[in-house]
Write a structure and sequence with these properties.
The chain is of the alpha/beta class. It folds into two domains: 4-133, 3-Layer(aba) Sandwich (Rossmann fold), CATH 3.40.50.620; 141-372, Ribosomal Protein S5, domain 2, CATH 3.30.230. It contains 14 helices and 13 strands. The chain has a five-stranded parallel beta sheet, with helices on both faces. Strands 6-7-8-9 form a four-stranded antiparallel beta sheet. A four-stranded antiparallel beta sheet has the order 11-12-10-13. A hairpin with a 6-residue loop joins strand 11 and strand 12 (357-362).
Length: 380
């Protein structure tokens, strides 16, 4: 009797990368594909798929390597759980950018072998992704490597310091509400379309910051989001109790960008859950703000020195300083995940305000099941 194989996903705008993924998964046995409903896609990604669930189902069922496909009846990141328990496959296959600990833990609970597959094109074809095909969207994402929260005056007024960001190419569709500046990114798309225009980076970042925070905005998005998106490569923005930094350093040295992008790996936590309040139970004072500022400054120096051990150590120190002010950033789920990767990584932090998003890891060699990033270079 043939083994049974299970995969799940949105599979919108079906392309050669999807077909190749199905073909690779089907090598393990009869392939069953669980498709996220339109409702689930909207809840997780903040947008409806281009193709509705019935059209996506029709196309996936038409792929020769697929034994059967269906719309998952559940919701959330484990929307397929009911079908998984009904089918009880031998294997569950995911791409590296689709791997999250909840999927793996569910498979372990059910005795299903969990396989993480590298995303790769069919021989002779270019890499394809739904993100790439959606109007050829070149709008970057960003992550804050250190100092996040110092761009808020209620933190930097206690002690000044930098936020270090890196602008990323959209090599995959990063989760919404995950600390990747996705909300500010959507506003950038409203302003400029599919890519950042040419021009003075600081002026463009100020325009985006103002558009992101129109008059009457109650919760101001920090300017590190705008700066991290607009400035290619690495940015060091120094805050002294104001929403806009007093100075910005900008580095696009190829060796620096290669050092950072080859040292960073992301593990998905899924989108931030509803009613998450990072501002509850917070404590701000000079000692805590200084600890964050000192760690961010040391982190920047570690990058400039290309010292990966200090790069990881200062990321840990900065994350610990964040937790001292924002204890809700840490929970049991995050602690378990950090323990899982502790032996692989030199440092770690959460993207953005936590509560979901990504665990960012620094390591001197590839981490199984984690996603690599690509730094955005300057355009001509």
């Amino acid at each position: 009797m043939a083994k049974k194989v299970f995969v799940s996903g949105c599979f919108d705008m079906l392309h050669s990368g999807h077909v190749e993924f199905f073909s690779e998964a089907a090598k393990y046995g009869d392939l069953y594909v669980a498709l996220g409903s339109d409702k689930t896609v909207f809840e997780l990604k903040g947008r409806l798929p281009v193709n509705g669930e019935q059209e996506r189902l029709f196309m996936v069922r038409s792929v020769s390597s697929v034994k059967d496909a269906f719309i998952s009846r559940g919701s959330g990141i484990l929307d397929f759980e009911t079908e998984l328990r009904e089918i009880m496959p031998d294997y569950f296959v995911v791409n590296a950018d689709g791997h999250i600990s909840e999927k793996r833990d569910l498979c372990h609970e059910l005795g299903i072998q969990y396989i993480i597959s590298d995303r790769k094109p069919h021989p002779g074809f270019d890499v394809r992704s739904t993100t790439e095909l959606r109007k050829r969207d070149y709008m970057p994402y960003r992550i804050d490597l250190a100092g996040g929260w110092l761009d808020q005056p209620f933190v930097s007024k206690h002690y000044p310091g930098p936020v270090v960001t890196i602008s990323l190419e959209p090599t995959l569709a990063f989760n919404e509400r995950s600390g990747m500046a996705s909300s500010t990114r959507r506003h950038a798309q409203d302003l400029w379309g599919s890519k950042i225009p040419l021009g003075d980076y600081e002026k463009l970042a100020k325009v985006l910051f103002c558009y992101d925070n129109p008059p009457g905005t109650e919760v101001i998005s920090g300017s590190q989001d705008s700066i991290g998106l607009v400035f290619p490569g690495l940015a060091y923005a120094f805050y002294e109790g104001q929403y806009w930094p007093s100075r910005i350093e900008h580095r696009v040295d190829e060796s620096l960008l290669h050092f950072v992008e080859s040292s960073i790996y992301l593990v998905s936590l899924g989108p931030r859950f509803e009613n998450y309040d990072v501002l509850a139970n917070t404590t701000f004072d000079r000692e805590r703000a200084k600890a964050l500022a000192d760690a961010a400054e040391a982190h920047w120096r570690a990058i400039l020195d290309r010292d990966i051990a200090r790069f990881g150590q200062t990321m840990r120190e900065g994350f610990n300083a964040q937790i001292a002010m924002f204890p809700n950033m840490m929970n049991e789920r995050v602690a378990v995940l950090i323990d899982e990767y502790r032996d692989f990584a030199l440092g770690w932090k959460l993207s953005g305000a936590g509560g979901g998003g990504y665990l960012i890891l620094v390591a001197d060699k590839p981490i199984p099941g984690a996603v690599s990033v690509l730094a955005r270079r300057e355009s001509d």
